[in-house]
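Q: Got a minute? One more chain.
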Amino acid sequence: MSPGFAPEALAARWGRERGPAGPPIAHEFRGRYADRWVRFHSLPGSKRYPESEAEYAIVLDRYNSVLDELFAGVDVFVVTMDWSVTPTGPAAYRTREALHPEGVRWWTEANEEDPNPDPDPDPDFHTHTHLYADRRPWERGCADALLRAVADEELAGLFFTDTELRRIHHPYDGGADVILSTPEERDRLRDQHTDWLSSHSAGL
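A: Always. Here it is, folded:
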């Protein structure tokens, strides 16, 4: 199946549009784009994990409602993450492979820090983060299997972005970090969903 885009072209576009701020690593977006960031929680009372089908329905509705507001009527890149201890794999997560078979690898980022430091660390050991993407028309529900896996903490590093890379939605277990194109657009979206915001002073 064709991914609907050229991986090299997407990497080059990221380099032009967002590359100066860093690689496309989802958990780093909040810090890099703080002036355009808002976080929405997935469940009432900032509860982190759903425990019933009714709570899964709330989680998926909140994810999809914001995704609809960001991407209705346009194509999106759906990006999943995996890692390995060598540049070419094998990948670590069967869940990612099973839930995102359409994804093709378009980015590999080396992390030269030993994730398990000890008094005698291996200077040659480091991990490689791999990003896989496909392009699809956004439709509500088209990524529910991925979103549910995120809610269950079975998948991490998922994000969605439009083809111009202007808006980003990064769901995580407990909520979603959303990056808008301007602070004003962020404020408008935030004000539409005040009940989903954290009471924490930093919005976390």
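A: Helices lie at 7-17, 29-32, 53-71, 94-99, 144-151, 183-192.
Q: Perfect, thanks.
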